[in-house]
Amino acid sequence: MYNTILVPVDLSQKHSGISAIKIAKKLLDDSGNILLISVIEQAPRYVDAQLPKGIQDNVKRQALSELKNIAEDEGIGSNIQLRSGHAANEILEAAKSHNADLIIIASHRPGLSDYFLGSTAARVVRHAGCPGLVDR
Questions:
Q1: Who has the most CB within 10 Å: 2, 34, 67, 91?
Q2: Can you give the residue ranges of every domain in the chain?
Q3: DSSP state of 90
Q4: DSSP 3-state of 83
Q5: Over 60: is that where the pLDDT of 116 sits?
Q6: What pTM did the predictor assign?
Q7: Between the CA of residue 41 and those of 1, 75, 87, what are the distances in Å?
Q8: Which of 99, 105, 101 minimizes the C-alpha distance to 37?
Q9: How many CA atoms lie within 13 A of 120 on its CB side?
Q10: Phi, psi (deg, nearest 5) at residue 50
Q11: Exposure pattern of 79-118 as b/e (b: 16+ CB <10 Å)?
């Protein structure tokens, strides 16, 4: 059993994240906790300068609200974190800073571009300092 399980949730594919949460609940130690994390990709500065003022803040507020709702619906509580940046890097940093014992990450069926570039799930599992489980 695992004490700290990190579950990254792609809010554009909530059903996959919820599936990973259900797996985490089965593998969690009685005194353990599940940390939900979602990463918002930052817009490049040249794009950000053209966006209406406050749009990024609205996106972050909406994402945090969705993450809170998922945590509440799944009975996890308020153990959530919203980050901005490159998804794989932020997930790996969160796992390291929270001393995660396991990362459970959902993955979609890879397309041709994923074979050349590598998906977020593949990068996380490849570079994590703890075991990684990919839910398909």
A1: 91
A2: 2-135
A3: H
A4: strand
A5: no
A6: 0.88
A7: 32, 27, 7
A8: 105
A9: 21
A10: -95, -10
A11: ebbbbeeebbebbbebbeebebbbbbbbbeeeeeeeeeee
Q: Does domain 2-135 have CATH number 3.40.50.620?
A: yes
| pLDDT exceeds 60 at position 71 | yes
Q: Which helix (DSSP H) or strand (DSSP E) does residue 63 occupy?
A: helix 55-73
Whose tokens are 């599992």? That residue is: 125
Q: What are phi and psi of 14, to 5 degrees?
A: -55, -40
Across the chain, mean pLDDT equals 89
pLDDT, tens only, 6-59:
999 999 989 999 999 999 999 999 999 999 999 998 777 777 677 787 788 888
